[in-house]
Automatic annotation (TrEMBL):
The organism's taxonomic lineage, starting at the top: Bacteria, Bacillati, Actinomycetota, Actinomycetes, Micrococcales
Pfam family membership, one: UDPGT
Lineage top rank: taxon: Bacteria
Single GO BP term: antibiotic biosynthetic process
The species this protein was found in: Salinibacterium xinjiangense
Record bears the keyword Glycosyltransferase: yes
GO molecular function: UDP-glycosyltransferase activity
Family: Belongs to the UDP-glycosyltransferase family.
Entry keyword annotation includes Transmembrane helix: no
Gene3D superfamilies referenced in this protein's UniProt entry, alphabetically: Glycogen Phosphorylase B
Record's keyword terms, sorted: Glycosyltransferase, Transferase
Protein name: Glycosyltransferase, MGT family
Signal peptide start-end: none
Amino acid sequence: MDRAHIVTLLIICPDYASHLLPLATLGTAWRDSGERVVVATGPAIAPIVESFGFERVHLQLGKGSNPGVIRAEDQPQGEDDALRGFFDATRRGMVDTLAFQAEARLSDFMWEPVRVARAVQAVVESVAPDAIIVDHLAFSSRLALDAAGISYADVLVGHPSALPLAGEVYGFPPAWPAAFQPGSGDLRALRELCDRVSESFTAEWNAALAELNPSATPSANAFAEHGELLMLNYPEELADDARKQALPKHVFLGSSVREENPDAEVDAWLASSDEPFVYVSFGSFLSVRTDVTEKVVRALESVGVRVALALGSGDRRDLGDLPDGWLVREFLPQVRLLGSAAAAVTHGGNNSVTEAVTFGVPLVVLPFSTDQFAGAEAIEREGFGVALAPNEATVAELQAAIASALALPRLRLDELALNLRQAPGSARAFNAMSE
């Protein structure tokens, strides 16, 4: 980068809070260096952009949005039914969920790709950035930049397997936690479906690419496309060696842990007792599975620890009476609480996993979908927690898993946490893009 003038960083992100939070945190390294940061995204997460002190330009990359807590009734017509269909699939199990997501992939990832791509190119022309960071899952955005020959840093906010390597196919987890034992026939059918979706998605990508740039080389596998510099928002210590060696040019960012504003109620609750507590969150929309949350609540009552519970889109009435002294709200400052938690119960989303290990918090992971299974397997493999199947796990099994997490030897986890805090993702991204 030319340091003789104010550098402009453009961040391109879908209209989803869970994606923007780590990407915006990366942008703080530029902001704190006196540079200009512009975020191209939709209106639902405009308040988050503003909270970071960044500029925003409008860019709608998909039909749906997620401002932080997502409910089906808040989505556009069609997206509401799709979200309800996804929730129903999670109740049927892992394979049904992954199959549902695979079948929805074209409309999810390639919404009006040519129009969106041209809108992306118009934003780049207007903003005139010196550097660009793009969410890996913003496929139409990366398509636009590839078609125009524009260089960018490709940030994978998720488990590294979201970029399929040789022999893998997008949407088919390369590894499973021990608690999941899908039948060989189910797995074969899922793999065949994912292969068909990958072929269809690649055809859609190539058709759009040809319209945007007729001289461009078609892709052999659009899900395997990536930017010149791949940045993985994931700790290298959790990635298996074979994958690390097979990845294209890349840098592991570790984690992108944001600073959160003070919260008087949370700070008072933390100060009210020195007793250990467990943080519970199933994210912005899987929290609708209050049947699973209710089992976790009963298990935690048996363990006898304090609890901070983020309800998300769940209905508190589904959980029955909760013990006095628990901190229960729709939304809680996750980073603030993980900084003091003794353990956490999570669906295994990327933000939850990376933020927990940044503070050395052992996990009980109940994965529902996408790359959560591979992420849970990594936590289990490295001895940093326990993974259970959310639909099948009993209260007794959850109780044992929570007790195990609380008693987990912490030396290796503490070493990882120290490394992640000493070299935050924002600094790693800034250095990698400044070379």
